Amino acid sequence: MIKKFVFIPNSNALTNNSIKKWIEQLSDIFLDWTFHSPKDKEDALLEISDADAAYGTMDKDLLSAAKKIKWLQAPAAAPDEGFYFDELINHPIIVTNFKEIYNDHISVQILSYILSFAKNSHIYRDQQNEKNWKQLPESEHEIFLPESTVLIIGVGGIGLETARICKAIGMKTIGIDSKEILSSQWLDEIFPAKKLMDHVNRGDFIVSTIPHNPITEGMFNYSFFNRMKNSSFFINIGRGKTTSLIDLNKAIIEKKIAGAALDVFEKEPLDKKNKLWTYPNVIITPHIAAHGGKYLDERRFDILRENIKKFQDDKKLKNVVNKNQWH
């Protein structure tokens, strides 16, 4: 029996140009499927009415129109807020995502922040822009990474790859995760999420890779920063809404922590009036941790192809999402 797959239009700017190529490739591989790319929502409402599966961002209208739908491939590893609405969560549809395609790219971004803080590269870059030849005092060069500890909150693919890289330069690695992880060769110690506050003061670098959901929203607040060592650095490449920028700003001013590196923010772009722009011990990048990542499109296609095969063979899909937790 022929199955139908629909690519919902305008779901992800990063993959819009790839869909035509994907359809050609998938059509050659899966002869018992038809693949459709409607040009707009009106066309999509018609196409999705008898679709078995879809790729992209669903809304209430599309979900209501999709009478046969059983599987939705999300267009990202952690889609934007609003992707998981109540009707989608309560619907029997299975949702999968693109997690772990960014492991190597984003972990290198995290390492770049750690190295900058260890060697003050960001400070010297600021001085270079001012043509200022000035050596910082020895007291500002005391971080020795082989004797430092990185505490990684969220040890999925990105977190584990970060741990591997950090161990390669001699750092101690501690992992915190909401899922049970029995062991890993890259983690010296592993603790459940409920133990986070018991161990946060052990990290010289606190790295968050976690997604935004109702549980994690605003969890990095003043109370959290107050538990960190005042010599430690906070790094967030997960999702912006996990971190209160007001509280982080206060922690920086009061020297509760040594600094921060942020690639994601509560609201993007970051307001030009935000004082975080002005602090020499804060590194700000405009949500680019995964940019320039080679092979990302190929990895997306591989997951999509693998899941189509699993779906038609009635096997468990890869990267199934807990819709209530949005990941």
Tell me the layout of helices and strands.
Elements: E1 3-7, H1 19-29, E2 33-36, H2 41-47, E3 53-55, H3 60-65, E4 71-73, H4 86-90, E5 94-96, H5 103-119, H6 121-129, E6 149-153, H7 157-168, E7 172-177, E8 189-192, H8 196-199, E9 205-208, H9 222-227, E10 233-236, H10 245-253, E11 259-262, E12 282-284, H11 296-312
Description:
This protein is of the alpha/beta class and about 325 residues long. It folds into two domains: about 5-100 and about 295-310, Rossmann fold, CATH 3.40.50; about 105-285, NAD(P)-binding Rossmann-like Domain (Rossmann fold). It has eleven helices and twelve strands. The protein has a seven-stranded parallel sheet, covered by helices on one side. A five-stranded parallel sheet has the order 2-1-3-4-5, covered by helices on one side. Strand 3, helix 3 and strand 4 (about 70-75) form a beta-alpha-beta unit.
In short:
The chain is 31% helix and 15% strand.
The named CATH superfamily of the largest domain: NAD(P)-binding Rossmann-like Domain
User: Which fold name is given in CATH as the topology of the largest domain?
Assistant: Rossmann fold
Structural class designation: alpha/beta
CATH structural class of the largest domain:
Alpha Beta
Percent of residues in helices: 25-40%
Calculate the mean pLDDT score and round it: 96
The count of domains is 2
Number of helices: 11
Radius of gyration: 22 Å
Q: Which term fits the overall shape?
A: elongated
Secondary-structure element pattern, one letter each:
EHEHEHEHEHHEHEEHEHEHEEH
